[in-house]
Predict the 3D structure of the following.
Amino acid sequence: MATAHHMLLYGCKTPGSQKAVWNCGEMAQHDNSLEASSPCAAGSQVIYAWARDAPPLSLPPEVGFQVGGKSPIQYLVLQVHYAHIDQFADGSTDNSGIFLHYTERPMEKLAGVILLGTGGMIPPMRREHMETMCRMKEKKTIHPFAYRTHTHSLGKVVSGYRVREDENGVDQWTLLGKRDPLTPQMFYPVLSNVTVTTGDMLAARCTMENNRRDWVMSGPTNNDEMCNFYLMYWVDQTTPLDMKYCFSSGPPHYYWTQSTKLNNIPDMAASSLDS
């Protein structure tokens, strides 16, 4: 944690560059010697994320990410974010990375990750909700088994839900995960053993507290903020979701209360670690 702020492992159909190392276009702006490109040129999806001294992730039995062959993941790209680079000013290098365990034996269940997140901005000296929601349109059933939260320093609570409408049109909110994002940002077991299927909605909220006297924008640097809820799942006898991301524009342009698709919102519970 004292070296790398966080790391993201992307699965790509085509990488952003053919070079071994390149500027991802976010935090290496000081180094003009590196080629600048996004992690993926095509087919981007997040496979894994690490931050804040999180321990290793172990997948459930017979669950794995399909890589290579006819899968959409033809390349793996590791993106490393550094909050500070003072320790490298004297020419020192870093070996931060990820150990991958693989098998050539096909797994019974294929894993996937969907990332729920927002853009937006947080007003000075204010508590703000950054929220997103997407409906499952694909004719598939996913089995969530792990979740991960991520913000920068202003995050207080991040919560994620499966929302399913009952026969009376009332939304039933099932908590998938809730966490203080400033604790180790590992993948934790989901809090409810449920499935998500066609017509269900996935929703996430980050409760932020801005005690600064300036607006804080969504962005990649340490002075910006992020609102991310990662949901890891497996599917049986089919492929993972084509939907890899669920993003909203965030405050002040998007809130759950402005969405005509949502009702019965658990407002207090979504922003409290005690409920």
